[in-house]
Amino acid sequence: MTEEQKNFKILKKTSYEQQVSKESKEEILYVFKLGLYAAAALVTFLYGPENIQTEIEKWMMAGLGLFESIGAGLNLKDLIQSICKKTMLQGKIEDICNDLEMPEDKNPEDKEIRGISR
Q1: Could you tell me which residues come within 8 angstroms of residue 100 by beta carbon, excluding any fewer than 6 positions away?
Q2: Which pTM does this prediction carry?
Q3: Whose C-alpha in 45, 55, 70, 112 is 20 to 30 A from the C-alpha of 77?
Q4: Helices 3-47 and 55-101, axial angle in degrees (round to 10)
Q5: How much of the chain exceeds pLDDT 90, in percent?
Q6: What stretch of H or E contains 59?
Q7: Cα separation of 63 and 103, whole Å?
Q8: Domain map of the chain by residue range?
Q9: pLDDT tens profile 28-69
Q10: Which long-range contacts link 82-85 to residues 24+ away (Cβ below 8 Å)?
């Protein structure tokens, strides 16, 4: 591997690490929002019916609970997607690290024979 190729791989690794950091921050936000929506839906469905006196209030409370449940579901979907993306990026970082640690005298064909090449 030439020096230029090594520098390019190092730059890619740095870029991936920044993306992993960004995804980690987004995961924290998604978990927080998921918790808020889930807690709000739970409170709405458990304690809302006790305080309802009219039919309109019942429908409004059911709509609010449904809205909160949908919000929780959407945040859960975003959280799962973020975790998947972060896992994929971490795999790419590991591949780059393995490429950089490979001794210079090794042939790339040897790597393909062992099934490590992608």
Answers
A1: 6, 9, 10, 13
A2: 0.73
A3: 45
A4: 160
A5: 49
A6: helix 55-101
A7: 63
A8: 3-102
A9: 999 999 999 999 988 888 877 777 778 888 888 888 889 999
A10: 82/23, 82/26, 82/27, 82/30, 83/27, 85/19, 85/23
